[in-house]
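yo, MRH domain-containing protein is done. seq:
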Amino acid sequence: MTLDGITSPAELFHPESLGIPDVIFFYRSNDVTQSCSSGRSTTIRVRCSPQKTVPGSLSLPGTCSDGTCDGCNFHFLWESAAACPLCSVADYHAIVSSCVAGIQKTTYVWREPKICSGGISLPEQRVTICKTIDFWLKVGISAGTCTAILLTVLTCYFWKKNQKLEFKYSKLVMNATLKDCDLPAADSCAIMEGEDVEDDLIFTSKKSLFGKIKSFT
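structure:
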C-alpha cells in the first residue's frame, strides 16, 4: 500500500489469517540527509491478534532485521488484541440445554475463533421454566381421550334421536293409512263410456207418465 509516496509492502511480513485487514500508519520526516535525499519515513502495520494481550508485540521484517532495508524507510508490524474490532452481539451465540426437571439453562459463549476485543460482555446465564416431553405427551393423550369420549357421546345422542324420529314417522304413516280405510266409498254419478243420455231421459220421462196414470187410477 502506498500513501503520499510512502510504501508499505505487505510481503515484508507474514500474511494475516483472520480476514481482518491491517491498519497502517504512515509517518514522514522532511529532514534531508546525504543518504536520504527525500527524507525519512516510517510505516507501522497494526494487526489484530486476539491471543496477544495489550500492549502486544512488535516485529521487524524478516528480510531487514533492522526494520529498514535502505536506511531511509522503516517498517514495523504491531500485533495486539487492541487492534481487533470491538465485540458485539454478533460475536457470541447461545447454547440452550435440554429441559431437566422443569428447568432449562441458556449459556452464552464467544464464537470461535474469537476475533474481537473489548466492547460488550457476555450475558449472564439465563434459567427458565420449561415443560418436558412427558408433560406434552400426557396432555396429548388426555386431549385425545376427551375427544374420543365426546365423539362417542355425540354419536349415541344422534343415533337415539334418529330412532325417535323414525318411530314418529312410522306412526304418522300408520295413522294416515287407517284414516283412508275408514272413509265411505263415493257413488259415481258420471256417465260411463257407451251409455246413451237420451235413452235415460226418455226412460225417465216414460216412467214419470206411468206414475201419473197410476196415481189417477
